């Protein structure tokens, strides 16, 4: 009887943390708009870029010939890269910003006076990250299909696995960022917005890993997202599922999550010892 009661208590605490954030969005439409703003803006900009590139190829084609099929594939690869990278970015930022909401409101001390445990905090923040990502990226997907006729779901059910792998990478980076915030306070907050952009050049979002210099390719292949985008291009260009890249993405996600979780729990313990949970926003 003890285990079911404890599990039910954990679920209530996780839901309580989620409800605290959901109440903010329910009462503030600008917050909801902000979730969709950047993914939609990215899709509009990159959609125009792909339309321009397709037009250039059309003009370069001999008179009377249609635009090459390669232009359509290239447009799909670019738009697919934008959408899937937004999954990574929004999952990381959704997790980290939800944590920062607790810091800015000086609520961490209040949370951990309650029976809330660190893993329950992480679970609540991850659940909020899923909701934030679904709203933002969902709007961008609808826009991509409406304006440019690109449906990323054409990759089939494997798309769910690719998106899950990208979200797991986003959570691992977010855990590392929150650990730095616990250690360094407000001085590390900027990493919540900028750290993923530093990984983007090595994640092979818009180009194959083979384009990178030879000495950088092992670095790129150690990033889970690089395998996801290699798999995306295989699905869109060749129409095949790259199971090897999917396996590598899942395995690397496990390593990244385990390492980030260890760092987070260690810094959380240190913050408790120092009493930093009460004044981390100062």
**Proportion of beta-strand residues:** under 5%
Number of domains: 1
What about the largest sheet? none
Mean of residue pLDDT values: 86
* E-strand count: 0
Rg calc? 21 Å
Short characterization:
The protein has helices at 2-26, 29-60, 69-104, 108-111, 118-148, 158-184, 191-199, 217-221, 224-238, 243-274. The protein is mainly α. It has one domain (2-278).
Task: Provide structural commentary.
- 77% of the residues lie in helices and 0% in strands.
- It has one domain.
- With 282 residues, it is mainly α.
- The model is unreliable at 63-67 (pLDDT under 50).
- It has helices at 2-26, 29-60, 69-104, 108-111, 118-148, 158-184, 191-199, 217-221, 224-238, 243-274.
- The longest helix has 36 residues, at 69-104.
- The termini are far apart.
Q: What are the salient characteristics of this protein?
A:
single chain; 282 residues; mainly alpha; 10 helices; 77% helix; globular
Give a topology summary.
Elements: H1 2-26, H2 29-60, H3 69-104, H4 108-111, H5 118-148, H6 158-184, H7 191-199, H8 217-221, H9 224-238, H10 243-274
Helix pairs in contact: 1-5, 2-3, 2-5, 3-5, 3-6, 3-7, 3-9, 6-7, 6-9, 6-10, 9-10
